[in-house]
Amino acid sequence: MILLEKEECKITRYYEPEFKEKMVRLHLEEGHTLLNLQRKYKVSKAVISHWVKNFRNECQTIP
Description:
mainly alpha
């Protein structure tokens, strides 16, 4: 039996920019919680939180 370390089991997924924008909008504009979005769309709270952080950073850099 071969045991894999936790890091070896990670699956990298690609999400379309439109999907990311939808998640950010649902969270920020419509008030959906990260937990709710995680359960509904099967995307981790950490990933959605990262997208929200990136969105906020991008908004601050736009003149």
